[in-house]
Amino acid sequence: MFINGALKFTQELTTRRRIIGAPLTVDEILDPHEENNVGEATAYEDDDAIVAEIQHRQAIRSGELVKVESDDEDGDDLPKVCATELILLCEKLEAACIAR
């Protein structure tokens, strides 16, 4: 009964030119391809880990946190600069920019 009604409805929509291209099969309607690609599955230790992950993702989505992707995971080859040196470098850069 459902299939006959769906076929009749599909034919009517095709006649009215509301379906562009080939109509979907019943299998394509009931099992869309988008649902086959679920994504990565993560095993969490407990409920607190799940809550922490959700809060982290919401913070990124709302802009509270910025997600930074890096090719260099360990960061060992980056030079170590203390805050005082960084401030002096910024002052030098500022002076050079103003001088130009």
Q: How would you briefly describe this protein structure?
A:
This protein is mainly alpha-helical. Helices cover 52% and strands 0% of the residues.
Give structural notes.
The protein is elongated, with a radius of gyration of 29 Å. It is 52% helix and 0% strand. It has 4 helices and no strands. The chain starts with a helix and ends with a helix. It is an all-alpha fold and 100 residues long.
Q: Calculate the mean pLDDT score and round it.
A: 80
Specify the biggest β-sheet.
none
Global shape: elongated
**Number of H/I helices:** 4
**Residue share in helix:** 40-55%
N- to C-terminal separation? 81 Å
Radius of gyration: 29 Å
What is the string of SSEs from the N terminus onward?
A: HHHH
DSSP, total strands = 0
Low-confidence stretches: none
As a percent range, the share of strand residues is under 5%
Helix/strand-derived category reads mainly alpha
Q: How are the SSEs ordered, and which strands pair?
A:
Layout: H1 2-15, H2 26-30, H3 47-62, H4 83-99
Summary tags:
100 residues, elongated, mainly alpha
